[in-house]
C-alpha cells in the first residue's frame, strides 16, 4: 500500500496537544505548530483497522499483556536493531517519562547525582530535580561540524555520589545517532564508576540512511546488566496519545524492582487500545515506517536546502535521526527571549525554544519536520519573511 504523507489533515479540535494547546503554551493561537514531538500524518492502516475491530467488540475491560504482544516486541527489536531480547525482560509503562521518574525514585536516593547530556529533552531535567536528586550536566561538544560526547568533562564531574546516567539515544534535540564506539566508551566509564545507565531509545526507529541505532544494552552482557532501556511505538508510529511505552530490563533484580514499583502504583497493565496498537505496529507497521522514513528524509533535505538558499542566517544541524531538527539561529543576533518572541510574534511559528533544552540551547530553536511538505514550506516561508523584515 502506498501512503500519502503529503495529505494535510486538520487536527484542530481533536484536543491534540500540538494544535489545541498552542495558545496556552505560546500565548497565541495565531501560530503554525511545529513543536511537540508527534506527527501530522495519518498512521499505518493496519493499526487503524485493528483499533476499529477492537472498538467494535464493545467491551473494554482490564487488559492482559499477551504472549503474542511480547513476541511482537521481541521480533521487532531483533529485526530492526539486531538485539535479541527475551519476553521476560519486557515490561510496559504508560510512558517513557513516567518510567524514567520511577527509575530515578527506585534506583537512587534523594541527594544522589544523576548525569544528563545537555542540551537534551527537557523532561530529563524535571525527572531528576522533581525527585530531589542532584542534576549534573555533561554538555555535548560541537567539533568538526558535529556534536560529540565530552568524555573528559564527564569524568571530571564524576564522584562517589553519581549513581545514574540518563542517556538519550538517538539524541533529542541534536539528532545524533550514537555510534557503537561512542557508546562503548561511555558505557566503560559508567561501569568503572558504578553508574547505572538508563537509555531512553524512544527515537530508535527514526534513523536516516547511513546511520544505525545501536541499543546500548546490546553491546555487551556487562552493559545489559548495568542498564535499563526505555523505548516505545509512540514516536515511530505516531500513537503517543495511546500512552503505551516499553522497557527491556535484562537484569532480573532491576526488573523485579521496577515491576514492584509499577505494581505499587497499579499501572502494570497497558490500556486495551494501546496493547492492540503496539502489537499491530510491531507486526504490520514496517511498510508504513519505511515510507515514512523516506518522506522524512525528503523533508530534512527540503529544510536544509531552503535554509541554505533562502534563510542562510539559520544553520540546519546535520540530523542523523529523529524528526526534530536543531536550528542554529545565532546569526540573527537575538537574546533567547528575543528569538522566542521573534518566532512566535513575527514569524508566527511555534517551535520549541532552544533554551528549554538547557542553557546550551540559547540561540537555537527546534523544529518538528514530521508534517506534510506543504506545511513545512509554509512554516519556512513565514520564518523567511520575518527574517527579511528585520
Ligand atoms: C527523548 C524522549 N523521551 C521521551 C519522550 C516522551 O515519551 P513518553 O510520551 O512516552 O513519556 C520524548 C518525546 O518527545 C522524547 O523525545
Would you write up a description of this structure?
InterPro entries: Aminotransferase_I/II_large, C-S_lyase_PatB-like, Class-II_PLP-Dep_Aminotrans, PyrdxlP-dep_Trfase, PyrdxlP-dep_Trfase_major, PyrdxlP-dep_Trfase_small. 43% of the residues lie in helices and 15% in strands. It is α/β, with parallel strands linked by helices and 390 residues long. The protein has 2 domains: 17-44 and 287-389, Aspartate Aminotransferase, domain 1, CATH 3.90.1150; 61-284, Aspartate Aminotransferase, domain 2 (3-Layer(aba) Sandwich), CATH 3.40.640.10. Helix 5 (96-107) runs parallel beside helix 6 (123-129). The longest helix is centred in the last third of the chain and has 25 residues, at 286-310. The structure holds pyridoxal-5'-phosphate. Residues 37, 95-97, 121, 168, 172, 200, 202, 232, 234, 240, 245 line the site of pyridoxal-5'-phosphate.
Q: Helices and strands, in N-to-C order?
A: HHEHHEHEHEEEHEHEHEHEHHHEEHEEEH
CATH topology of the largest domain: Aspartate Aminotransferase, domain 2
Which percent band covers the strand fraction? Answer: 5-15%
The CA-CA distance between the termini, in Å, is 46 Å
Unique ligands: pyridoxal-5'-phosphate
Number of strands: 15
Amino acid at each position: 500500500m502506498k501512503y500519502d504523507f503529503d495529505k494535510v489533515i486538520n487536527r484542530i479540535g481533536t484536543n491534540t496537544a500540538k494544535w489545541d494547546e498552542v495558545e496556552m503554551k505560546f500565548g497565541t493561537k495565531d501560530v503554525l505548530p511545529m513543536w511537540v514531538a508527534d506527527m501530522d500524518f495519518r498512521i499505518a492502516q493496519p493499526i487503524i483497522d485493528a483499533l476499529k475491530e477492537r472498538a467494535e467488540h464493545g467491551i473494554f475491560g482490564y487488559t492482559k499483556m499477551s504472549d503474542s504482544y511480547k513476541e511482537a516486541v521481541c521480533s521487532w527489536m531483533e529485526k530492526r536493531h539486531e538485539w535479541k531480547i527475551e519476553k521476560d525482560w519486557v515490561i510496559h509503562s504508560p510512558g517513557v517519562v513516567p518510567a524514567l521518574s520511577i527509575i530515578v525514585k527506585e534506583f537512587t536516593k534523594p541527594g544522589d547525582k544523576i548525569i544528563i547530556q545537555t542540551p537534551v529533552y527537557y523532561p530529563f531535567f524535571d525527572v531528576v530535580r522533581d525527585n530531589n536528586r542532584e542534576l549534573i550536566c555533561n554538555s555535548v561538544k560541537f567539533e568538526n561540524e558535529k556534536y560529540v560526547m565530552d568524555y573528559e568533562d564527564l569524568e571530571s564531574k564524576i564522584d562517589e555520589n553519581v549513581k545514574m546516567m540518563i542517556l538519550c539515544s538517538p539524541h533529542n534535540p541534536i539528532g545524533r545517532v550514537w555510534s557503537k564506539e561512542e557508546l562503548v566508551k561511555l558505557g566503560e566509564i559508567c561501569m568503572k564508576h558504578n553508574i547505572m545507565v538508563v537509555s531512553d531509545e524512544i527515537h530508535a526507529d527514526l534513523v536516516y540512511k547511513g546511520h544505525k541505532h545501536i541499543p546500548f544494552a546490546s553491546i555487551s552482557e556487562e552493559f545489559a546488566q548495568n542498564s535499563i532501556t526505555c523505548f516505545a511505538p509512540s514516536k515511530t508510529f505516531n500513537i503517543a496519545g495511546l500512552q503505551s511505552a516499553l522497557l527491556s530490563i535484562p537484569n532480573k533484580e532491576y526488573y523485579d524492582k521496577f515491576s514492584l514499583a509499577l505494581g505499587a502504583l497499579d499501572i502494570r497493565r497497558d490500556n486495551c487500545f494501546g496493547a492492540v496498537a503496539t502489537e499491530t505496529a510491531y507486526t504490520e507497521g514496517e511498510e508504513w515506517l519505511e515510507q515514512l522514513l523516506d518522506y522524512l528524509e525528503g523533508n530534512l533535505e527540503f529544510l536544509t536546502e531552503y535554509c541554505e538558499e533562502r534563510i542562510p542566517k539559520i544553520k540546519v544541524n546535520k540530523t542523523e535521526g529523529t524528526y526534530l531538527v536543531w536550528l542554529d539561529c545565532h546569526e540573527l543576533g537575538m537574546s533567547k527571549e528575543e528569538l522566542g518572541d521573534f518566532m512566535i510574534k513575527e514569524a508566527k511559528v511555534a517551535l520549541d525554544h532552544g533554551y528549554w533544552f538547557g542553557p546550551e540551547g540559547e540561540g537555537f530553536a527546534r523544529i518538528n519536520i514530521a508534517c506534510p511538505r506543504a506545511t513545512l514550506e509554509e512554516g519556512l516561508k513565514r520564518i523567511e519573511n520575518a527574517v527579511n523584515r528585520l
